[in-house]
Write a structure and sequence with these properties.
Low-confidence stretches: none
Number of strands: 4
Number of helices: 2
CATH topology: Alpha-Beta Plaits
CATH architecture: 2-Layer Sandwich
Structural class: alpha+beta
Strand order of the largest sheet: 2-3-1-4
CATH class: Alpha Beta
Number of domains: 1
Order of helices and strands: EHEEHE
CATH superfamily: Ribosomal protein S10
Largest sheet: 4 strands, antiparallel
Mean pLDDT: 88
Radius of gyration: 19 Å
Length: 102
């Protein structure tokens, strides 16, 4: 039987957990087996920039941070479950990737 591997990523972990709960509800309603959500390591990106725009004065730096949180869900690839999964309203700042594996 095929499995659907769902990879969620975004900057807001609360939104990721909300989508994971929606996927869990779909799995319970359709009766398919679900594994996860598995939290993957958070990627932390730092961009250092100079505070002074002209280069004069002391070298002071600002550090801008962005964290990308990831979740992984394995779901049995039932046609009904996948149709309902495609209808989930995904927020703009959450990326969802679905891969079918055998």
């Amino acid at each position: 039987m095929q499995k659907a591997r769902i990879r969620l990523s975004g900057t807001n972990p609360a939104m990721l957990d909300d989508i994971c709960n929606q996927v869990r509800g779909i799995a319970q309603r359709t009766g398919v087996h679900m594994a996860g959500p598995i939290p993957l390591p958070t990627k932390r990106m730092v961009v250092p920039t100079r505070k002074s725009p002209d280069g004069e004065g002391t070298a002071t730096w600002d550090h801008w941070h962005m964290r990308v949180h990831k979740r992984l869900i394995d779901l049995d690839a039932d046609e009904r479950a996948l149709r309902q999964l495609m209808r989930i309203q995904v927020p703009k700042n959450v990326n969802i990737e679905i891969v079918l594996e055998s």
